[in-house]
Amino acid sequence: MRFKHLAAASAASAITALGAVSPAWAGSGSVFVKPHTAMAGDRVTVVATDCDTPTAEAESPAFTAPITLKKRDDDDRHRALTGVATISDDATPGTWKIQVECGGESFTGWVTVVTSEPSGGAATGDGASQASMIGGLGSGASLAAAGTGLGVLALRRRRAGARG
C-alpha cells in the first residue's frame, strides 16, 4: 500500500516539474535589462534570449527611440541578442514595459526608471553604538578572565581536597 502512495506521489511530482519547465522547452524567450533600474539619460543593455533571428527590434516608451538587438559574435549557444538603449529625459519614474519582436514572436521585459541614484552607504545608524562597543569588549574579556580564574581555583581546591 505504501508503495502505491509513493509511486503516485512521485508521478505527481514529475508531472508538476515537467509542467513548470515546459515553456522553456517551447522556446519562449525572455527579455532582461542591465541595469534593471535607471535614471533619465542612462544607457541600459537589453538582452533577449532564445531568438532564432540574427536581429530583433526592441521598443519602450521609456526609450529615446526603438533599438535593434543583434547577436553577439561570441554567443552561439544561447541565441541571445543584445542592444543598448537610452532612457528618455521625458521618462517619468515607474516601471516601463519593453517589447521585443523576434521572428514573429513577441517577448516582454521591464525597466524601472527612478529620479535619483541612491548615494552613500546603507542607512543603518549614526555609529553612536561604536563607542559603547569597546567598553562591551572590555567587560566581556573581564568576565571571561574571571570565569577562567574561578574555574582554575575550583579545580585546584578539588585536587587539594582529594589529597588531604
CATH class of the domain at 29-114: Mainly Beta
Number of helices: 2
Main sheet overview: 8 strands, mixed
Helix content: 25-40%
**End-to-end gap:** 70 Å
Q: Tell me the Rg in angstroms.
A: 31 Å
What is the string of helix and strand elements? Answer: HEEEEEEEEH
User: Architecture of the domain at 29-114, CATH level 2?
Assistant: Sandwich
The CATH homologous superfamily of the domain at 29-114 corresponds to: Macroglobulin (MG2) domain
Strand order of the largest sheet: 1-3-6-5-4-7-8-2
Question: What layout of secondary structure does this protein have?
Answer:
Elements: H1 2-25, E1 31-34, E2 37-39, E3 43-48, E4 55-59, E5 67-71, E6 81-86, E7 94-102, E8 105-114, H2 129-163
Parallel strand pairs: 2-8
Antiparallel strand pairs: 1-3, 3-6, 4-5, 4-7, 5-6, 7-8
What would you say this structure looks like, in words?
The protein is of the alpha+beta class and about 160 residues long. The protein has a domain at about 30-115: Immunoglobulin-like (Sandwich), CATH 2.60.40. Helix content is about 35%, strand content about 30%. The protein contains two helices and eight strands; from the N terminus they run H-E-E-E-E-E-E-E-E-H. The protein has helices at about 1-25, 130-164, and strands spanning about 30-35, 35-40, 45-50, 55-60, 65-70, 80-85, 95-100, 105-115. It has an eight-stranded mixed beta sheet, with no helix packed on it. A hairpin with a 2-residue loop joins strand 7 and strand 8 (about 105-115). The longest helix has about 35 residues, at about 130-164. It is elongated and about 95 Å long. About 15% of the residues are buried. The model is unreliable at about 1-25 (pLDDT under 50).
